[in-house]
């Protein structure tokens, strides 16, 4: 019989071959193997799994539940080789996930943010392109609904201005997908790429689309700091606020506006929701539905559609 550690490696290899990255799960399960070895435990028990899952102190209950889920998944696999294996039952570490309330930007707020971005001050010559970097980056997030991590990973070769598409590479399950672009978006990106080439002419620079003043890929923390500064500048956040509208809320705005436009065009949003879900890169339509909560405008359009339906029946 394989050792627990051997089975963990085989389990991770198998799932990764199916396209799952399992970075956190991989580290966690190897830590679980070390825990079991220290305990000299011959097989997995529910008690041992719970003890290991709750080892980290001062963390959210969701973290414990996530760790236990890693062991639960592996235990199902392990039980085929060792029938003594106990699979932790569902609901052992219940928790209520807390999701941030989405903020739906107005058109004027988006315009103010982009205007502030393109007029950002810079102290040195190397930073002269940064206002255009942030202007295009935040603008692309607004009009595409893409995640920040996806936009950060875009390369110059991923931008096809003639076909008006962006190629998103190595998404979940190792697949690529295409994002269509409006002609106005292509125009702005073409202008930015031209400025980028002129700014870095005859100098070494990364092939990432959005780059820092040092010529490498923009750091995620750097992007958030710039966003917070711009948000305070235009009044989206107070000077000392630690919470407020987020970059991820651009994605909420895109999803909501898409459905509102479908309602106004007389189309069937319920039937088209899987299209939006696929565009956003969601595996399950339910993941898309959550984006659409707390939208008064969307609710008004839905109620208007319902009123029309009842008027036609009377």
What can you tell me about this protein's structure?
It contains 13 helices and 3 strands. The protein is mostly helical. It has 3 domains: 4-78; 107-234, Intergrase catalytic core (hpI Integrase, Chain A), CATH 1.10.443; 249-313, no CATH class. A hairpin with a 4-residue loop joins strand 1 and strand 2 (165-168). Helix 5 (107-118) runs antiparallel to helix 6. The longest helix has 18 residues, at 61-78. The radius of gyration is 24 Å and the shape is elongated. The chain starts with a helix and ends with a helix. The mean pLDDT is 85.
Task: Give the topology, please.
Elements lengths: L3 H14 L5 H16 L7 H8 L7 H18 L28 H12 L11 H15 L3 H5 L6 E2 L4 E4 L8 E4 L2 H17 L20 H15 L14 H16 L4 H12 L4 H7 L4 H18 L1
Antiparallel strand pairs: 1-2, 2-3
Helix pairs in contact: 1-2, 2-4, 3-4, 5-6, 5-9, 6-8, 6-10, 10-11, 10-13, 11-12
């Amino acid at each position: 019989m394989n050792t627990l550690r051997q089975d963990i490696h085989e389990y991770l290899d198998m799932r990764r071959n199916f396209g799952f990255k399992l970075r956190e799960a991989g580290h966690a399960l190897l830590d679980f193997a070390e825990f079991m070895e220290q305990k000299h435990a011959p097989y997995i028990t529910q008690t041992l799994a719970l003890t290991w899952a709750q080892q980290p102190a001062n963390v959210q209950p969701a973290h414990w539940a996530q760790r236990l889920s890693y062991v639960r998944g592996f235990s199902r696999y392990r039980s085929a080789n060792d029938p003594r294996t106990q699979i932790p039952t569902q609901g052992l570490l219940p928790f209520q996930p807390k999701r941030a309330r989405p903020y739906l930007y107005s058109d004027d707020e988006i315009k103010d943010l982009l205007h502030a971005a393109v007029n950002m001050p810079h102290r040195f010559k190397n930073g002269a392109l940064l206002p255009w970097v942030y202007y295009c980056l935040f603008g692309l997030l607004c009009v595409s609904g893409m995640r920040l991590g996806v936009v950060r990973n875009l390369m110059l070769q991923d931008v096809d201005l003639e076909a008006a598409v962006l190629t998103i590479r190595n998404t979940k399950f190792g697949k690529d997908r295409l994002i269509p672009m409006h002609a106005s978006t292509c125009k702005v990106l073409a202008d930015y790429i031209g400025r980028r080439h002129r700014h870095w002419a005859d100098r070494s620079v990364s092939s990432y689309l959005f780059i820092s003043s040092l010529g490498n890929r923009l750091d995620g923390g750097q992007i958030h700091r710039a966003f917070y500064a711009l948000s305070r500048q235009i009044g989206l956040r107070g000077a000392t606020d630690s919470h407020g509208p987020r970059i991820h809320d651009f994605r909420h705005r895109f999803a909501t506006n898409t459905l509102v436009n479908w309602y106004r065009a007389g189309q069937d949003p319920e039937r088209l929701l899987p299209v939006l879900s696929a565009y956003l890169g969601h595996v399950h339509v339910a993941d898309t539905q959550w984006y659409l909560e707390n939208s008064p405008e969307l609710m008004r359009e839905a109620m208007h559609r319902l009123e029309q339906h009842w008027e036609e029946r009377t």
